[in-house]
Amino acid sequence: MQTHRNPGSISRRALFALGVTLLLSVGCIAQPRPLAASAALSAPPDLSFVIPAGTASADMRGEPAFTIPSEIVVVTGQSVVIRNDDHAMHYFAETPIAPGQTYRKVFGRPGAFGYGGVLSCSIAERKTVTVRVVDRLPDAPSLAAPR
Amino acid sequence: MHALPMNRPGLARSVQWLVLAVLGGALGVLAVAWVLPPVRLTEPADAPLNGAALTPPRPIPDLTLQRSDGAPFHTADLRGQLSLVFFGYTFCPDVCPLTLSELKQVRGLLGSDADQLHVYFVTVDPARDTAERLHRYVKAFDPAFEGLTGEPAALASMRAAFGAIGERRDAPDGGPNYFMDHTAALFLVDTSGGISLVYAYGTPPGQLADDVRQLARQAHAAPTGPTGRHSP
Q: Considering its fold, how many domains does chain B have in total?
């Protein structure tokens, strides 16, 4: 079978192919979402605590109103956030958190991190806190829940 | 199939060659793009800082101490630079020498950026840490380190400003020697002169150096603005 083709014409198929190729080229070169942005999107939610007003006074009366768990479990990349709404300074992991301040620590690497009471010339009497950083939380969600 | 009519066959052939050339060029671009890393249209986000961030940064009141070389030190001197402040004493058996050794490593890791970081060792034991002893002690680790001492009241105010603690603990045998229980964390004072990051004892020098580099870069980019990305 003989196909008739006008030698003096431009195929629309060729134009279409040209357009598609150009679009592919542009799409291949320009990747607008950097890796960091996609990682940020998948960052686990903060594990947050709030030290309520009156905590120090309650402690002095022997009525503890707030305590941080002695062991905290977070997943890699998760932040522990502590906001001090009290009128006194509170310490977490040797970090002084002044009234109105917020503490934030991103735990980016797996492992167990112990704070306080482990050094001969540090504040040995202070409570020890261990932060365990795991790749994924066990199924029981209560491990990481604030008390 | 419809075709665009062309009156001149020679011209039509030229246009067809042109289309083919553009197609070939585009395919070439595709091949190059496949090989080369992608072009970033936005700047990569900074990595989260390794220290524990305090927001807002804690301001430091105006205090005057004494440098170990005898010159006065004003806390206002901390503004406009990145500083790591540590509270310790020269008789410390473990935490202080280890920390100063690691800070020496931090400066080594920073290489040509080491001058961006200032290190201050504030004594919690002025009774035994004379200026001369303090000077010899800190300079033995790194000539760039600064030892700070002063009147006991001024030093107590300095500790209070940072939320640091230094308390005497007598030796168990009742002898004349004693220990000082003290905060083992490192405090980072940012260019605004506020305490914005705290590093637990044992933070690897590489993590400290990474943070200093990032903060120095940010301070350079926005010299009057806040430093550090404190949230992920």
A: 2
